Each structure stands twice: as C-alpha cells, then as structure tokens.
Amino acid sequence: MESLKKYCLSVVPFLASELDLIDTFFVEKSFKKKEFLLENGEICPFIAFIHQGTIRHFHIKDGNEKTCDISFENAWVTDFQSFTNGTPCIMNLQAMENTTIYYIEKQNLAKLYKSNPKFETFGRLMAEKVAQRATEIAISLSSQKPEERFQKLIFSQSNIFQRVPQKYIANFLGISPESLSRIQNRIFKKSKS
User: Fold this and answer.
1) d(CA 27, CA 52)
2) Is the dihedral of CA 106, 80, 59, 183 positive or negative?
3) Is 103 within 8 Å of 76 (Cβ atoms)?
4) CA gap 184, 104 in Å, rounded
5) Are 73 and 53 spatial neighbours (Cβ–Cβ below 8 Å)?
6) Which DSSP letter does residue 183 get?
7) Average of pLDDT values for 38-61?
8) pLDDT at 148 (0 to 100)
9) C-alpha 137, offset from chain centre
10) Long-range own/partner contacts, residues 142-148 (CB < 8 A, 24 or more apart)
11) Would you say residue 94 has pLDDT above 70?
12) What is the mean pLDDT of the chain?
C-alpha cells in the first residue's frame, strides 16, 4: 500500500507511524477488466483509492449508459450519496482494465478518523477534491464545445485512448463515437499543417 501512503503524505504531513494505520484499515482488492466494483441499486459500503487501473463511473438513463467520469491511478472512487446516506446507489463503477484498489469500509473509516485526527483532515481534503472534479465536469459539459472537452481530456490523460475504449470516451464527452472520430481527424490535420 506504498502508493496510498505516498499519496497521503503528499497531502498531509503524516508521521511514518500514522501512515502505518493504512495497513490496519484499508484492504487491497483486484478486479478483472469489465468487472464491477459497484452496481446500480447496491448500497456503497466503501471509498477506494485506485492503485493501478482505470474505473468508469456511469449510470443508466432511459436504457442508455451515461459515462460520468473515468478515473485512473491515484484517484478516489465511491458513490458519496449512497456511502454517506446508506441509500441504494444509481452509479455503477466498472473496471476498464485489470484494476487494483485499496478500499476502506464505512465503519473502518470512522475508526480511522477516531484514531488520528489527521485522517479526518485528509478525508475532508479528498472529499473537496472529488467535489471539485464533479464541478469541473459539469461546467465542461455545459459550457465547452466537444472539441475543447476532447483537447482538455487529451492534455490531462494523454494515454486514455490506449486504456479506455473509444465508445466510452465519446460517451463521457457527451458525443457519438462518429463525432469523436471527426474531432480526432480535425485535430490531427491541424497538427500536421
């Protein structure tokens, strides 16, 4: 769980002995490509840190999958509404490639917070980061053109096309796979000239 410890240390100045609490409260779990971490209707009992792999967040509306986000290494995933309120989730979390996470269940998170207040600070900062990401996505979808969203995605996740099928990338950008191909071709032609 060294990657999680390094990540925590980059956010809050933990002592080595405090970071050892991660080994006590977090559990490692692996998922094969296409396997679900969480499905619609379940109650989300965990918050997870992606050690290795890619996770697609999506819900189903009118029988169609709507990709809300795609998360890579060093990101946190959960359905906060379900996790916090104990209600059935509407979100699905699916591995897009073989994925390893470190997760903590709700009751262990409460114990971790109680054992060391620095983890409460860390938890608040991570929740703020997740909320900022959700706001960025909402603003992007409502105010940027598809080509701008595509360029921003390529800038932030340059290897996304090697790791995630194009149909899910298009869905995340709010466009059809055909539109995505046209945008890619336009940008490729511009870069050549």
Assistant:
1) 14
2) negative
3) no
4) 39
5) yes
6) H
7) 96
8) 87
9) 12
10) 146/173, 146/174, 146/175, 146/179, 146/180, 146/183, 147/183, 147/186, 147/187
11) yes
12) 92
**What residue spans define the domains of the chain?**
2-142, 144-193
| CA gap 160, 40 in Å, rounded | 25
| Tokens representing residue 66 in the block | 């709507």
For the ranges 2-16, 92-106, 175-189, which has the lowest average pLDDT?
175-189
Backbone φ, ψ for residue 132 (5° rounding) = -65, -40
Domain 2-142 is found in CATH 3.40.640.10: no
Computed from CA positions of residues 65, 66, 68, 74, in that sequence, does the dihedral angle turn out positive or negative? positive
**Interaxial angle between packed helices 166-173 and 177-192, expressed in degrees from 0 to 180 and rounded to the nearest 10:** 90
Tokens 């620095």 belong to which residue? 118
List, in order, residues 6 or more apart from 110 with CB less than 8 Å away.
none
- When pLDDT is averaged across residues 70-91 and rounded to a whole number, the result is 94
CB 124 within 8 A of CB 55: no
* Helix, strand or coil, per DSSP, at residue 31: strand
